[in-house]
Amino acid sequence: MRDDEKYTNNEELLLHLQKLLDIPETAALHEFFTELDTLDIARTLESFPAKTRDFLWEFIPDEVIGEVLAEVDEDIRADYIEDLSASDVEQIVKGLDAQEVAEVLDVADESIKTSVYASLDQEIRAQVENLHAYEDDVVGRYMDPETVNVKQGVSLEAVQRYIRIHHLLDDESQQIMITDKDKRLLGTLTLIDLIKQPQDAVVDDYINDFFTLNDQMKVSDAAALLRSKELHFVPVCDSDGLLVGQLNAADVLEITQDDADLTLKHMSGVSDEEEVFTPIMRSAKSRGIWLGINLLTAFLAAFVIGQFEAVLEQIVALAILMPVVASMGGIAGSQTLTVVIRGLALGQLAGNNKRWLYNKELWVGMCNGLVWALVVGLIAYVWFSDPLITLVITLAIFINMSLANIAGVLVPLVLKRLQIDPALSGAVILTTVTDVVGFLSFLGLATLIIL
């Protein structure tokens, strides 16, 4: 039994490792990492701050260092590679596939890349250079350039013999791709058909329809397609239809996880590179930009409040109740924003269904606005025993929650049209809208009704 199979979850594994670190038990640490697979080692290293992580590196078996480096976060990989010579990196990448080599060299400087390129097998080198030619946010950067494909017109028996001789199939290969003489993809052949059908038949008789991704497609768009189609294996072609790679189950999972991870970070104004144990100054710097932007929007809301200084001076209750209006609108808008951003990520919003979404969210906002406006109004009446204040906050809550839902739809759709990631700035803009509308409606009604 592997060491990581002794634990029901990752937290138990980390607690056990922390106990070993407290001693520290050198032999036990060596054994601990020897029993883990490379992905578990990578996730474990990411769960510790830099100083502890540097200590733990010494106990990782040399033969899996390269695979671990290809799995860990880019910042961790960069910190490790920074202190290595070209010959060290050459040893680390020896035996890795093209995808793993490309990941490791991503963070190396040009002199190290040049030296390592020269040490690689010619085929692996060509594949790595091809991967590095792609932008970081396109499908081609994620694909496996080593494909299992055969030419049209050959028999199933010949395909089986070819695969056995060259040891082509592995645990990730799910289909064999059929290409013409120019390597233009014609279709796919399932392993079931390869084994089950008459061996003297040609592959052309059992070609299946196939779904492909363009190598230049944005990863976020690809993630939406892969989720909607529930695909675990996809051929990747260039604009001329030539087969250039394939996405295996692990690649598909990486794309969808990275996309979801970036969306979550963007919604909170956190940089793409920040992780749990990113150094203090780096985290502070990356978050500071969005805190500054948020400060500007906060002053906009403060400016709106300042226009009603006269009514606030006369009625203290308004100042007490004012945060309630903004908070209820903010929550209502955030709920809608989350649903809409998810819909955009899944490719569910297009054409006429946007109008239906506007209507739906308006009615949801009005229904919840009415219910919670009455609840808040009742509390305000019990608290202050003032029917005019009760009327003002009841109307303000209803207005702000209704409009917040509309803003929750409108803001991400407008940002999407402007080719701005809705997750990156949608929350900041929405908060500004709900604050301004909330304060404006509340204090404006108070001015009209009470004064």
From TrEMBL:
UniProt-annotated location(s): Cell membrane; Membrane
Principal location class: membrane
CBS domain boundaries: 206-262
SMART domains: MgtE_N
SUPFAM superfamilies on file: CBS-domain pair, MgtE membrane domain-like, MgtE N-terminal domain-like
Entry keyword set: CBS domain, Cell membrane, Magnesium, Membrane, Metal-binding, Transmembrane, Transmembrane helix, Transport
A Pfam short name: MgtE_N
Membrane-spanning parts: 289-308, 314-341, 362-383, 389-415, 427-450
Membrane topology per record: Multi-pass membrane protein
Oligomer status and interactors: Homodimer.
Described purpose of this protein according to its UniProt entry: Acts as a magnesium transporter.
Entry similarity comment: Belongs to the SLC41A transporter family.
Protein's UniProt name: Magnesium transporter MgtE
Encoding gene, per UniProt annotation: mgtE
